[in-house]
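hey so i finaly got around to running the thing on General stress protein from Celeribacter baekdonensis. pasting the sequence first so u can double check i didnt mess up the copy paste, my clipboard has been acting weird all day
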Amino acid sequence: MTNINDFRKDPQHTLWEELDGVRAGMLGLVGSGDHMQPMTHFVDRAASKLYFITSDQTDLAKQAGVTATAHYCVASTNQDFYACLSGVLKPITDKAKLDELWSKVVAAWFPDGKEDKHITLLEFSLGEAALWASTGNPLIFGLEIAKANLNKDKTPDVGEHRVVTFAKAA
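ok and heres what it spat out for the 3d tokens, dont ask me to read them lol
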């Protein structure tokens, strides 16, 4: 459950914590005309990057080209945290990174293992993230709804919104 006070103090830290607790989100390329698709992310906090492993046969991998602007959206399992991340998505060749990220779950998608000729590693360098966190406490939520219904000038105060900008890598 998202701690709203921690989010107010350090929204970027909350983002990393939430990404660690979410298995997948929706990834898409800006202007591609294609729908976003579900993808599992691998987090590199220090570099402000996410990695995705996919096949070079997917529309996403084909259209990522050398570099492309992408959005990745996630929602926490408790539905009290939402994020839309934007940045540059590009295919990379990095055997050490692929070895680091490889697991039995990833292997299930590639019958020939890490040597599968269609494996593509996508690197998502974060530029900005729009974040929303709300209270997961149903009593606070109910109280805020009741207060808003009793006062036409009041809207429910159940969450916060922040935008985080990530430093460009040197």
